[in-house]
Amino acid sequence: MICPYCRSEVVDGINFCPKCGGDLKNAPVVAQPVEQQVQQAPQQYTQQQYQQPQQPNMQNVLPNNSLAVPSLVCGILSLFCCGSVILGVPAIICGVMGVQNAKSGKVNNQNIGMCYAGAIMGGIATGLFVINLIIALFQSFFY
Hints:
The chain has helices spanning 34-39, 43-46, 68-80, 85-104, 112-142. By secondary structure, it is mostly helical.
């Protein structure tokens, strides 16, 4: 402890400074030098316990859904090709198989939205193809 009046070091727990006679019991608290603060720090704060970071268990990691991207690409291309059934049907097949694999736990379901989107766009493109085919057949019969 440091005497607030003369700045000399004194033993903790005494009431008066042996050098200047100042009243240490009612004295204002004075900040201690950093060296003393470090020496008086509790043991639990001075020695930190560091542990090795835990490695993730790679056995529990599921593979990515490899059908998500083909389903989405085929679905987008089938819409741009004015209802192409050539790309719409594979988009539906890849999308449905990707969703089934994700829900059964064979692959992670991180890209399940891409499977849904590809299957929906493939369905829309195939539906547009069927509608265009029906319209073309009716026009050939009536004109």
